[in-house]
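To illustrate the input format used throughout this study, we show a single complete record. The first block contains the structure-token representation of the backbone; no residue identities are included at this stage. The design step must infer an amino acid for every position from geometry alone.
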């Protein structure tokens, strides 16, 4: 529960959010959209508890397990390790090497990709390691912050299919309208320190952006000179 929440980073800094009031449950499917810099990623950090609200309260169920994917999550990977070694360190008591290999295989990493140092993997392949780690955590609520960075079209389509099959709740931040259009979710707009439900799908929001960003038509200047 997000109850009368306001947030700003410090002192007299401008408010990022004011008087937010909404709930999220295991059936919630939301895509957060809005201009850059309005605080979409900040809201995910508040929901997870990485940031503390300035005013109000966020109440989480005691047994809620949140899985957050964010743009910099790959930075905590030890690139000298293999993907299998990394997952075994994270989950030492959950089935051993074969289980970790199967988990990575489900996300498209096979053969030598699983056992070579991760520094030899591409950015997209490292993202797959993180997705495998996230999946093995079995969260109830997914918070996805720009998950399509470094992913190809085929992987984005697979991600959309996986998200649609996920049985829990989800809050997605993405500029990728292709992904959002494939995911069965509501659209919430973050703007002017508020979060408001968009009455329509992502395509209608995209059209709205296109209409509001069109340059005004130039009026034709009439010849004011008088004929003699």
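Output of the design step:
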């Amino acid at each position: 529960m997000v109850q009368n929440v306001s947030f700003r980073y410090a002192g007299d800094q401008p408010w990022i959010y004011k008087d937010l009031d909404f709930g999220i449950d295991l059936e919630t499917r939301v895509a957060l959209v809005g201009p850059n810099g309005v605080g979409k990623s900040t809201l995910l950090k508040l929901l997870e508890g990485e940031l503390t609200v300035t005013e109000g309260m966020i109440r989480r169920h005691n047994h809620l397990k949140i899985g957050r994917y964010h743009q910099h999550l790959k930075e905590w990977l030890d690139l000298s390790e293999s993907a299998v070694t990394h997952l075994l360190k994270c989950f030492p008591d959950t089935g051993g090497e074969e289980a970790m290999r199967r988990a990575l295989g489900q996300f498209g990493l096979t053969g030598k990709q699983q056992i070579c140092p991760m520094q030899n993997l591409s950015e997209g392949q490292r993202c797959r390691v993180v997705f495998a780690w996230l999946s093995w955590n079995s969260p109830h609520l997914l918070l996805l912050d720009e998950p399509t960075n470094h992913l190809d079209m085929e992987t984005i389509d697979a991600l959309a299919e996986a998200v649609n099959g996920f049985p829990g709740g989800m809050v997605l931040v993405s500029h990728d309208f292709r992904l959002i259009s494939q995911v069965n979710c509501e659209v919430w707009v973050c703007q002017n320190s508020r979060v408001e439900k968009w009455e329509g799908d992502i395509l209608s929001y995209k059209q709205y952006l296109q209409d509001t960003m069109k340059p005004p038509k130039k009026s034709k200047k009439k010849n004011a000179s008088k004929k003699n």
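Structural context for interpreting the output: Residues 224-228 have pLDDT under 50 and may be disordered. The CA atoms of residues 7 and 54 lie 5 Å apart.
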